[in-house]
Design a protein that fits this description.
about 170 residues, Purple Acid Phosphatase, chain A, domain 2, about 30% strand, metal ion binding, Phosphodiesterase_MJ0936/Vps29, Phosphoesterase
């Protein structure tokens, strides 16, 4: 099972659209995960229409229309892998321990908010992933997104992708 993991798209405030590399990854993915901060509902409609399966949450920049359609925390069983998605996890200091406590029944937690790519494993085995942002890099060197594979309940082939400046819209 192929995953695309994105967050903090902020469309149309930070970009007119997702970069073409992200749309290609949407088409190739079995599951698209979005960890919030859509900003406008049009992107949700487009991702729902184009994705085979979408697991998504709202973020702090998302208004009532998005909050009415998306949960604060989403959970999914992906071939035996227990996935949770949330927008905010609090400060980086203590994040692994805090999330391991709060998401004890989870194998992988995807989060956003910081626009900073993150990939750690808590002492409990919880994997924490933040894909950064494909449209708003803030102080990061690149716009980014993640892909991964799930096989028999195991997350493998986690890859951080950077988006070249020429391919952004």
């Amino acid at each position: 099972m192929r995953l695309l993991i994105i967050s903090d798209t902020h469309i149309p405030k930070r970009a007119r659209d997702l970069p073409e590399a992200v749309w290609r990854a949407v088409d190739a993915a079995d599951v698209v995960v979005h960890a919030g901060d859509w900003v406008e509902v049009a992107l949700l409609d487009r991702l729902e229409a184009r994705s085979k399966r979408l697991v998504a949450v709202y973020g702090n920049n998302d208004g009532p229309e998005l909050r009415a359609r998306l949960p604060e925390i989403a959970r999914a069983d992906l071939d035996g892998l227990r996935l949770a998605v949330v927008h905010e996890t609090g400060p980086a200091t203590g994040r692994d321990a805090r999330c391991a406590r709060d998401f004890a029944d989870t194998d992988v937690l995807v989060f956003g908010h910081s626009h900073i790519p993150w990939d750690t494993v808590a002492p409990t085995g919880l994997r924490l992933l933040n894909p950064g942002s494909p449209t708003d890099k803030r102080r990061q060197p690149h716009h980014t997104f993640l892909t991964a594979t799930v096989t028999s309940g195991e997350l493998t082939e986690v890859e951080l992708h950077t988006i070249p400046p020429a391919s952004r819209v």
